[in-house]
């Protein structure tokens, strides 16, 4: 069964998460520089069977767009062109960073590890987005 890959787009870094082959569990995958996202996705999809790409859709608490919303929607359009055979889905990502931080604390992550936002928080946020998508399916 093909995997599902989630993307938590950031201005500098992007967190990625992927399901297991049975699409039961979402696992943090990688945090990459946002400018390298398309190269990474093309390489990853060439070596792994991916059924869908899930994008976290950032909005304000009241549901209105924030400064990242247009960037995510633009990326969605680019992904649809580059990967026409894959489903591209949007998932509400409000509170994912806060939930990711709470999850890291609950798992016993040290304060130093949580400070390394460049890696841990972004990919854990992507995993939360992906788990939300799996639960909606």
What's the arrangement of secondary structure elements?
Elements: E1 3-8, E2 13-19, E3 26-33, H1 37-47, E4 50-57, H2 69-82, E5 87-92, H3 96-106, H4 111-115, H5 120-136
Parallel strand pairs: 1-4, 4-5
Antiparallel strand pairs: 1-2, 2-3
Helix pairs in contact: 3-5
Question: Which short descriptors sum up this protein?
Answer:
137 residues, alpha/beta, Nucleotidyltransferase, domain 5, 42% helix
Give structural notes.
With 137 residues, this protein is an alpha/beta fold. It has a single domain, classed as YqgF/RNase H-like domain (Nucleotidyltransferase, domain 5). Helix content is 42%, strand content 26%. It is built from 5 helices and 5 strands. A 5-stranded mixed beta sheet has the order 3-2-1-4-5, sandwiched between helices. A hairpin with a 6-residue loop joins strand 2 (13-19) and strand 3. Helix 3 (96-106) crosses helix 5 (120-136). The longest helix is centred in the last third of the chain and has 17 residues, at 120-136. The radius of gyration is 14 Å and the shape is globular. The chain starts with a strand and ends with a helix. The mean pLDDT is 86.
Brief summary:
The protein has 137 residues and is an alpha/beta fold.
């Amino acid at each position: 069964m093909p995997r599902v890959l989630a993307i938590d787009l950031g201005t500098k870094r992007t967190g990625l998460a992927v399901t297991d082959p049975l699409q039961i569990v979402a696992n943090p995958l990688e945090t990459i520089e946002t400018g390298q996202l398309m190269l990474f996705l093309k390489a990853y999809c060439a070596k792994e069977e991916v059924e869908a790409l899930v994008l976290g859709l950032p909005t304000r608490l009241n549901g209105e767009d924030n400064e990242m919303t247009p960037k995510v929607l633009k990326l969605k359009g680019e992904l649809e062109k580059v990967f026409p055979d894959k489903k591209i889905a949007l998932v509400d990502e409000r509170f994912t960073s806060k939930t990711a931080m709470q999850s890291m604390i609950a798992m016993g992550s040290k304060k130093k590890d949580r400070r390394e936002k460049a890696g841990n928080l972004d990919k854990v946020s992507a995993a939360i987005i992906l788990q939300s998508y799996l639960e909606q399916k």
